[in-house]
Specification:
seven-stranded mixed β-sheet, alpha/beta, 396 residues, 13 helices, four-stranded antiparallel β-sheet, binds pyridoxal-5'-phosphate, Aspartate Aminotransferase, domain 1, Aspartate Aminotransferase, domain 2, 2 domains
Length: 396
């Protein structure tokens, strides 16, 4: 047997890929200095937090930006900004991170799900339209894996119906639609700075918006506002960001463009070299858009791979084989959000979203400083699996 999954030698030597993020000596030094300088007396007006908010907001292109302790807190706060009543509903794509739908319930409104597009993996505008009723107050646009949604199509629908557009840009730092950054495409947006993200801090989140009313109401979801007085117009949670994380954010913001460019180069290279495999269907980037390429994600067409009649079985066998060859890969989600216990809706109502959880694989090593050499290892691993395809049928 040749494949590593059946006892052969893995094609990717251990330690070939650099981890994400790549911590530099300058980052460590500035962090230690910052740690020494933090005290109770200077906590409230932490200059690094306000500086980070200013620079990140400037980078996204919005008038306002404020930080929070997670992307989940940011989505929830954006929803609080919308003044939701219990009878209101918010539409969320079925293929998304659980945070968005959960935040709607936490904000006291109802969730309605819509299906996604099989090519871009983003919200399907027709399915979205079909879910709208007189109680629809907002939509959460998830730029999935950093691929910007087609905001022109969504804007048209939302303007007519006065629906607020909340962007879940948690995976989309630096992505663009028609040269405008995600986070500045709708009415209000949420970012995450979790360590896995393109702007990796450790934990953290931010809101960006051009609407001062939305900003002030959204900020009231946090009982520790960084920039306004403690008026407590609302019940607030402890969503505070901190100066140490802001310091990391300031350092990493400097490299975001460079790092995103490397992701793009690596993605382009993989797409070009993997073209010959017709069973691999990469996520299609929205027309006129630039993805942040949070991950390299593709669907398996099992009818072309031809190792099993079942889509999930084919995907799982291929995935396990790729993983055992030493490629950092996985399944982003094995259930769509509506079918999770919290909601219990039959997945068959969202056929495209269901198809995505059953057929996709992500590869996470496309980040800086990995480059062509490392991409070649991924390609070699896939070539090896294809050359020994019959062995995939032997996996128990
Ligand atoms: C699309 C999406 N939305 C929201 C979140 C939540 O962000 P956080 O983990 O910072 O709460 C994530 C993070 O995993 C995400 O990928």
């Amino acid at each position: 047997m040749n494949l590593a999954v059946l006892g052969g030698k893995p094609i990717v030597p251990k330690g070939s890929f650099c981890d994400w993020p790549n911590v530099t000596e300058e980052e460590v030094k500035s962090l230690v200095e910052k740690f020494k300088s933090i005290s109770f007396n200077n906590y409230k007006l932490d200059y690094d937090i306000t500086q980070f908010e200013e620079l990140f907001g400037k980078y996204i292109g919005t008038k306002y930006c404020f930080t929070l302790n997670s992307g989940t807190a940011a989505i929830y706060s954006a929803l609080v900004g919308c003044n939701l009543k219990p009878s209101d509903n918010v539409i969320v794509p079925a293929y998304s991170f659980f945070s968005a739908a959960a935040a709607v319930l936490n904000a006291g409104a109802k969730v309605k799900f819509c299906d996604v597009d099989l090519q871009t993996f983003n919200i399907d505008s027709q399915s979205f339209k079909e879910q709208i009723d007189e109680d629809t107050k907002a939509v959460i646009l998830v730029h999935i894996f950093g691929n910007p949604c087609n905001i022109d199509k969504i804007n048209q629908i939302c303007k007519e119906k006065e629906i607020i557009i909340i962007e879940d840009a948690c995976q989309a730092h630096g992505a663009m639609y028609k040269r405008k950054k995600t986070g500045n495409l709708g009415d209000i947006a949420a970012f995450s700075f979790h360590i896995s993200k393109n702007l990796p801090i450790v934990e953290g989140g931010a809101i960006t918006t051009n609407n001062v009313k939305l900003r002030d109401k959204a900020a009231s979801a946090n009982m520790f506002p960084n920039y306004i007085e403690n008026k407590h117009i609302n019940l607030g949670n402890n969503f505070k960001f901190n100066g140490l994380f802001a310091k990391i954010g300031l350092e990493r913001l400097k490299s975001l463009e460079k790092f995103n460019n490397r992701r793009q180069e690596n993605r382009d290279y993989l797409i070009q070299r993997l073209k010959k495999f017709d069973f691999i269907i990469p996520q299609k980037i929205t027309e006129n858009a630039q993805s942040s390429n949070a991950m390299f994600v593709f669907r398996i067409d099992h009818s072309k791979l031809n190792i099993s009649n079942s889509l999930i079985d084919s995907r799982n066998r291929f995935l396990l084989a790729l993983h055992k060859e030493g490629v950092n890969c996985g399944i982003w989600s094995d259930k769509i959000v509506p079918e999770m216990e919290m909601f219990g809706i039959d997945a068959s109502k969202f056929p495209n979203a269901k198809m995505l959880v059953d057929s996709t694989i992500y590869i996470s090593g496309i980040h800086y400083p990995n480059s062509k050499n490392e991409m070649n290892l991924i390609i070699k691993a896939i070539e090896k699996i294809v050359d020994n395809k019959e062995e995939l049928k032997e996996i128990k």
